[in-house]
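The protein record minuted underneath.
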Amino acid sequence: MTEKAPQKEALIQLENISLELQGKQILKSVTMTVLPQQIVTLIGPNGAGKTSLLKVMLGLLPASKGTVFRQPGMVVGYVPQRLHIPQTMPLTVAVFAGMASKASQQTIQDSLHEVGLSVPLDQSVQSLSGGEFQRLLLARALLRRPQILVLDEPAQGLDFTGEAEFYHLIASLRERYHCAVVMVSHDLHLVMAATDQVVCLNTHVCCQGRPESISQDPEYLQLFGQGLAKEFAVYHHEHDHHHTADGRIVCDPEDHSHG
């Protein structure tokens, strides 16, 4: 069978990807494309293969079958789901952030500020809260000036307000860096309003498309429950204010959507 040529503008394109690990089928015939400046969100139940799919996309896991195309020379910023740093390892915020690049102290400080993290550069990484550490991981990924930002459950450990602000931050970073974003999330009520393309995964691709187009897909409704899916899939909202990193509310005078 003749291989399908990748789309010219595609950053990543997967064609009929399958993955088996220790005799278990993790992914089956997955096809998807990530275009420049597109936000793509992978959703699905636990064990659906979402993290494994990210690793195949990035070349961290070899696919058992199928074709993976990655734009040559593409710069990736990766925020993993979990990263354990031993308590006994002396590691400051500046050293940890600088591991991803040869950035200056000022550039690191600017990146921390950009993601809403206000901590000293000489502070121990182990002393950060879960939410602060997530922002540090994001700042470190951005120091690479990525063409594609890959995030595995980026808002874990945050409360509802923190999650909403984090997804708003991701959308603004996409605009600022002109990068694509691929993320795994369970936060349907927030993600659906902050993504261009949704890929619903359960080993295979159940459905994919714009949020409003998949919200009535039978496989989507079966996976997430009709009541939950209908409530969250079309969730869109606007704010006339935003929250700063220290929690203050700042009004947006240009937004008159709330009268």
